[in-house]
Amino acid sequence: MSDSSTLDPVEASQAVLEELKRQRTEGVRQIYIEDSTIEDLERLLGSENGKEAKNLQPVSQSTTAEVSAEVQRISSAPTVEESQPASPKTSATETNPKLLSPPEFSLPEGSKQEQWDWLKNRVLGCDVCKSELNPDAQVVFGVGSLDADLFFCGEAPGAEEEKAGEPFVGPAGELLDRIISAMGLTRESVYIGNVVNFRPRHHSSYGNRPPTAEEMSFCLPYLKAQLDIVKPKVVVALGKTATDGLLGADPQRRLGQMRGTWHQYEGTPLMVTYHPSYLLHNPSKSSKRKVWEDMLLVMEKLGLSISEKQRGFFQ
Length: 315
Ligand code: URA
Ligand code: URA
Description:
Layout: H1 9-25, H2 35-45, H3 62-75, H4 112-124, H5 127-131, E1 143-144, E2 150-154, H6 159-164, H7 171-182, E3 191-194, H8 213-230, E4 234-238, H9 239-247, H10 255-258, E5 262-265, E6 268-273, H11 276-281, H12 285-301, H13 308-312
Parallel strand pairs: 2-3, 2-4, 4-6
Antiparallel strand pairs: 1-3, 5-6
The structure holds uracil (URA) (2 copies).
Residues 76-78, 239-240, 255, 274-275, 278 line the site of one uracil (URA).
């Protein structure tokens, strides 16, 4: 994309759109786009007659708006819906009236365990979540220690999780377990939750789609209540959906710029890092190292001892 400024923006964006559509018809579920490439594309899409605009405002040509939508869909989450030819009006973006009013509740008085049991019961019985389920699937609530110092937040259950009724038990979960164990911790000693408690439904028999803004805002009170109960010392947001859920959506947000530095969720230190699914699809040493550097920062913040061997992983 480095020559983008010399291309005709309409022609170039049509070419990008055609290529993205072609890849989707071939069953490509997700593609990796470097932050720098997205920035190039934004410059291209925001430019008129070769003049660079500062912000990404889809220009009047429908093609560039479509490319922008497509790129956002593909780059904004570790998983991408297999869908009909690109159109901003897929079922995933249609308004679902059931989701319009997120649940309102306050946790009952009691111990952490009592509050957590109450909340879990409420979430597993949530009529809206249940009505969003695929056949034979389960609502998935968080797991782990209620006294955990570290709270990992993911996106939404995938195929394995909706069957098992437990977060992060598929391939991404196996990688998360390896990350946790490389930190010298166990899955049981941390807490693992998701922004959304059901696997977002879509038209394909395989693959996952990222949750819509409505799905996220419906389930967020459940995630936030888990954070209130556990009161971790550090929260790790795995990927863009978790980050948007915890910090509020921001279309300009780039994980590559967020990771590696401390943010805050309601006063609790928050580290943003790449989602394990992203690492599974982009298993370069440099991606793994970045996630590992984020985890080293988390370990430091938690006062965990770090061996020389641990410091050197993926270098
Ligand atoms: N990906 C997620 O974000 N959460 C899960 O529970 C599984 C995969
Ligand atoms: N983009 C995402 O949405 N998640 C990742 O983990 C990496 C890139």
